[in-house]
Amino acid sequence: MEFGGSNAATLQRQLKRAGLEDNKAMTSPELNDGLVFYVDIFFKLTTDRLHEMGPIPTMTILNFSNYYEFDQEEENDLLFFMRAMDNTFLEHVAAENKKKINKKQ
Question: Is 91 helix (H, G, I), strand (E, B) or coil?
Fold first, then answer.
């Protein structure tokens, strides 16, 4: 599945809000329907960070799971995918910030 139209615009707004550069590879991912579900949840939960660019709190993920009545397997999957996406996102943000600092020097 390719993002386009409003999905691409939504992803662009999320990237801009996070201070990330426009990146075609990040705005046009090919995802199957099951993974789109997790990407959507990630962007909902990413707003609940306790520190500016700290990880999404585990309790935020678990509260989401409980609210939507996920079973144990679904909750484990949610934790796995949120941590994987969050770690990658934070690594990318750190690399972008390092580039900005190096440009200033």
Answer: helix
Q: How deeply is 56 buried, as exposed, middle or buried, from its count of CB atoms within 10 A (0-12, 13-18, 19+)?
A: buried
What is the maximal distance between C-alpha atoms in the chain? 50
pLDDT tens digits, 69-98: 999 999 999 999 999 999 999 999 899 889
Q: What angle do CA 36, 99, 28 make, to 5 degrees?
A: 25
3-state SS class at 58: helix
Q: Residue type at 76?
A: N
* pTM for the structure as a whole: 0.70
Question: What is the pLDDT at residue 75?
Answer: 98
Angle at 67 between CA 62 and CA 70, to 5 degrees: 70
